[in-house]
């Protein structure tokens, strides 16, 4: 099967990292295709950028040429999953939700450790809408921006592990979710330091997407994600 | 003061109707300026269209020339209010939330009557995120599309009033909220038929916006709506 | 229009302060009439006093001679709003709810800073019943009694600002609500010290009441606030 | 021990009925003393009457001469329990809460059947504040006023049993709570018709009060129910 | 009446302590019969042990010879109450729920102080399922194992009182619930040190059971606790 | 990898059906080993049977000879998953939770269609504890017992499809979850009749278990599922 893994920012290097993670966990026979939006922000850390990302991801997928079996939206806490589900027939998996549901199989409660404090509310909104909030013990910020996480992995591990340990100790979290695509590759180091399972969203989402395809399941089209009514769209970018 | 009232769809006639409603309730000295997005859908009735609207509204406001004191986003159940709050210094009022909070002053619980069944989940999500869901007794669909509501008011009143009465009788609603910009002007007729107060979002939002300005209050900038970090946005429309 | 603003305690100086705040924000053409209960407590800081206040306010309004368009109950966290809504035809606005809904337009979450710890549960109950609890990050006590707040504004500002800053830092509040009528006039000083918007209940409630009147809306009479059934009331105070 | 059982309305015959129920279940050695408020409504079916009842009950208890070990407030869904807890050192039991907690020992969920539709919100508020709402499957109105229930028991049983059966069938209730003091004595007939356990508030509350006394437990005085601060109360009835 | 009080572990000395507590509070005429499971763990502090306890208690009751009027399951936070309710016709009272409902009559919120941190989730699950979680301010662990609590009462009081005081100060608890059968007899010492009412589960449950019997109430058999369908059970222990 | 799939009842034919479903979806290289408890009920449709199943499953797994990588508990709504997680080092997946989380990827809300009305509360409890209740629109009973579902597939499809359609129409469900192991093999027929995606728990759980193993994730051992403390277990079956 072929899975599109779509970055939410316009930084190709981030897409490469995401694709690498996805391929590392993909089953034999699963082809991972990475997409980078044609427009948007170099990193997504706020409301405007997140709304841009929603459309950037949709645009990237709709302009992709060739068949695919599922789509993974690889941004933690971003908007847009519902739009993809409406526009597409294949399963759509957001890494925020995939990470959270995966974490719930591993412990009573999980904590998310993300980049900046300003992204915490975005993540909280996604988890609330997805009904995944009750087992979320805390959403903590490492204090490092997305691109800083990428550029200084050692410092990133320190900052994330400190919050992870605090979440286990003070928030009674039993599992840590890495709440940022830019944290890819830090899973092992954080787990070692935190002493609990650590879930990264992209690999989790790839396994969810593969599972849905294997189970022959796809998005329900009866109401929330029914195809859009035929109507005039004007201007950019989807007209 | 000057309030920008921004339509979420690209149909200028709808903007005209919204502006008319806004002006009818505005205080002396309040200037209402209507804006229509340069891109988007002719009516907003789904997830993709709603995400387009979020950016279309933001684009319209950011490209508006001249000062203003507050912004009203005139789409019921659409995305984008958070992005406006982040991008602007003046108060931002979404008509969904203004209608709901206004309704809570009038009765123990309210019901929303909207256009199509497919827009119900969008409204439910907005109310959940805003913490306004607990006093919402029901969200009911009239079965008429946004543009049908505009074009056949008599049929619209029939369809809305039927759902309003059902909400009062079966859902224990005590107030009705008209859940669609296209229902402007039907308030009186629905109230007469339903026997309970009927709240229309645009007038409600204008009074909320005026109140915030008079109280000297504006959006908190400490976390969720802090200004975006300086970064590279590429492509259109906000770069 | 004429708005009755009713103090919940029997201290006329507090009524004067409340009326002053109300007039400062009232629109041109709005007349503010202050009422002081004929019976009750000199300040309201507990359950018995709050129940007395509910009846004292009702008594004051029912004995008021002359027309009015709306009523503001100017006690933070007190009982009685529902009784007024049942007894009257005009809109009734409690300052607790007006402050909280106003705050929700300004930030993701708000904290209330009130007088004594013993009043926290009363406020929490009002917010829970009003469905306004989910966006309330915390209710904190300044440790000063209502009349101390009145008599020593500098000390009051210190105590309130300390709790406000703690709420922003530790509870993730983005807006502060002043949770006591006796805090009138401290808004500016607290805002300066806390760095976030500060909402005072009386001005907020006046604008809500004015808005409801302008919108032609009044309390739904179908169930919860239907007029009382004709029946024999004996003794004091409403017979 | 001696338990004060306080009616919430001013109808002495209702007090007599309540006292009769209480005595029927009281343990050997428990003395039941019935109190009727000196002021208030002949029956309590709304917000104003309920607030009057809160003070009427408090007044009746504070003016009671002689010792007692516990107080039962015998009104379903009325205000005032918190004020009694603040004012007194002995345990206070509201029949609404006693009935609900008793019901939770008997089945997964319970439904309340009350008098008029207009009293449903009052009951709902009490259960919400008490944290007893989640296992409440429904609150249904029989359509009979309090005094009608008293005067025509056969018709009352018919009306209550019809709602009880509907609650079991449609709301998945497994236990019925009689939600009105005036339903005293109908328990057996309703149980026979509904096929599930039926809980009456007054007997339930008497056993709870007796249990608290036997366990040597009384109200916590650290915060919510700490004694009132010394202050000037003016006017009647508690000054 | 005769009440079976069933220990959840296999340590007879613990049963003796529980029976002693039960008898100390039982009404004249109430006979307390203590039962110890034939199999299970010497103390219950985890998931496997708790599931064993559920069956051990059921086995002990079903093999008990002779009539009884109610059953008290004397384990804090253990599984099995639902199974007893299904299997028996008489009332069943779990001490976790009895302690929590008793505590709600005494203060706005309560905290549980239990043995080890690992038992906190078990207790939290019971309270959530029982709908008793909202008034639970915290569940705190003393750090002492069940049998340590038994063997060193002075140390136990120190550890429990420290957590109790922290719960009152930091979690706003107003009542303490002793969350372990092994804490029997420490109630007075903890109350003295914590300054708030302290509820012990076994005595509370005995009074609840007695009350249900006196009220003539028993478990609803319409759905959740309907008798098991006739079917083949094989193997051990209930076949 | 090798996955143990454990039936909750003692009927070997049901185990065979479950194993068949599991193998149909298992990835190449995944070995499915079916286990049938040595004791318990021939079908699980109530509280006692469910508690027996919890221990029967645990006993079966602990007595299994040879290595395995994950365990699937194949009973819908049964107790015991937490005990397995505590006792084992490998991932444990309950089919109730796997079906529910899978369903949340496919639509806004899902409904469970189960066997008998009496099993509805058991399922509701599992979903509540797992934090998966908010997106569950309804749990409906087909009215057929577990073994009837097995023995008359045509009648089963009729009964299930009727409830599925009702859930889509009346409860706004967008996805159907088959809430009984005995419904294996009916997925296609129900989907055709209901017009929405249909999720069966066993296949869903197998893919979740495979994913966890591939991701190298296993149960957190820091608190809730920490290994049992060394202690004396007496009697059977786990001593």
TrEMBL record, chains A, B, C, D, E, F:
Which Pfam families has this protein been placed in? Asp_Glu_race
Read off the InterPro entries from this record.
Answer: Asp/Glu/hydantoin_racemase, Hydantoin_racemase-like, Iso_Racemase_Enz_sf
Query: At the top level of its lineage, which domain of life is listed?
Result: Bacteria
Q: Which family does it belong to?
A: Belongs to the HyuE racemase family.
Q: Which PANTHER family match?
A: PROTEIN DCG1
**Name this protein carries in UniProt:** Aspartate/glutamate racemase family protein
**Species for this entry:** Actinomycetospora atypica
């Amino acid at each position: 099967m072929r899975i599109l893994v779509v970055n939410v920012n316009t930084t190709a290097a981030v897409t490469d990292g995401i694709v690498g993670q996805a391929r590392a966990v993909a089953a034999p026979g699963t082809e991972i295709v990475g997409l980078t939006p044609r427009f948007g922000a170099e990193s997504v850390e706020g409301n405007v950028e997140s709304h841009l990302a929603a459309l950037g991801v949709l645009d990237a997928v709709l302009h992709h040429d060739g068949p695919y079996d599922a789509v993974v939206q690889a941004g933690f806490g971003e908007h847009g999953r519902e739009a993809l589900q409406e526009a597409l027939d294949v399963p759509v998996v957001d890494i925020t939700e995939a990470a959270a549901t995966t974490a719930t199989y591993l412990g009573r409660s999980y904590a998310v450790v993300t980049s900046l404090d300003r992204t915490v509310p975005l993540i909280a909104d996604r988890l609330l809408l997805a009904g995944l909030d009750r087992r979320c013990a805390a959403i903590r910020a490492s204090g490092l921006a997305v691109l800083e996480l990428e550029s200084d992995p050692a410092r990133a591990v320190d900052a994330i592990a400190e919050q992870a340990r605090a979440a286990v100790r003070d928030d009674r979290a039993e599992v840590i979710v890495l709440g940022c695509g830019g944290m890819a590759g830090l899973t092992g180091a954080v787990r070692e330091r935190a002493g609990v399972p650590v879930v990264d969203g992209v690999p989790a989402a790839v396994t969810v997407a593969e599972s849905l395809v294997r189970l022959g399941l796809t998005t329900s089209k009866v109401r929330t994600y029914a195809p859009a009514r035929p109507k005039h769209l004007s201007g950019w970018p989807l007209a």
